[in-house]
């Protein structure tokens, strides 16, 4: 089950987020509800319920939608949504606090804590670049960011989605050909905080980072390439991104 930014339901949610940023909550709420009504499978419904919840007028209705999102996430049982559990349980706990139910609030806060930093993704994992490397080479932290050249990165980044690595390769600096390497982490790794729960709940792009090196164990050549127009839009989006990189 792979997150697809070109999915129609995802596009509606993106439009809803845009309305939120413009200070138009009513229009945002309508778009999120439209997305919910058009959703056809659990991952879509999970994403939509997350957004519908935050536009409810009262705590009971918000709790209902948050618990709907949680049940869908549990049903999906996919690594792309598991990183949403801490925030989901915390938000549910806050609702129970506001509804004067300390017992259920405590239980959900404990569940939120129990899911912190639990990663179960077994890969395979990929790293996209324009560097010409070989099997056995190590990819290490300390390089300059592809998106902010003055920033030296404290982690090496990778993903479990080959198309995501392909996009990273296309956007990477350098003049070499796009390469996607199959990699193995040599140490502990974490969800990439720059994407996890930032726009969509959880870590739908299955993006990770590590301070330990990644070992190259192979190279893949089959992934979905972006068109020149699509790549230009990505470059413009990155150029206009004013957010700070969590390093």
SSE topology sketch:
Elements: H1 8-21, H2 25-38, H3 42-53, H4 59-76, H5 79-82, H6 85-98, H7 102-114, E1 125-129, E2 138-139, E3 156-159, H8 162-171, E4 179-185, E5 190-191, E6 207-210, E7 214-220, H9 228-239
Antiparallel strand pairs: 1-4, 2-7, 3-6, 4-7, 5-6
Helix pairs in contact: 1-2, 2-3, 3-4, 4-6, 6-7
Q: Structurally, how many domains make up the residues?
A: 2
Mean pLDDT: 89
Structural class: alpha+beta
Task: Evaluate the radius of gyration.
Answer: 19 Å
CATH topology of the largest domain: ADP-ribosylation fold
Give the low-pLDDT segments: none
How does this model look, in words?
By secondary structure, the chain is α+β, with helices and mostly antiparallel strands. The chain has 2 domains: 8-114, Tetratricopeptide repeat domain (Serine Threonine Protein Phosphatase 5, Tetratricopeptide repeat); 125-239, ADP-ribosylation fold (Alpha-Beta Barrel). The chain is 45% helix and 13% strand. It is built from 9 helices and 7 strands. The protein has helices at 8-21, 25-38, 42-53, 59-76, 79-82, 85-98, 102-114, 162-171, 228-239; strands at 125-129, 138-139, 156-159, 179-185, 190-191, 207-210, 214-220. The strands form 2 sheets. Strands 1-4-7-2 form a 4-stranded antiparallel beta sheet. Helix 1 packs antiparallel against helix 2, helix 4 (59-76) runs antiparallel to helix 6 and helix 6 runs antiparallel to helix 7 (102-114). The radius of gyration is 19 Å and the shape is globular. The two termini are 29 Å apart.
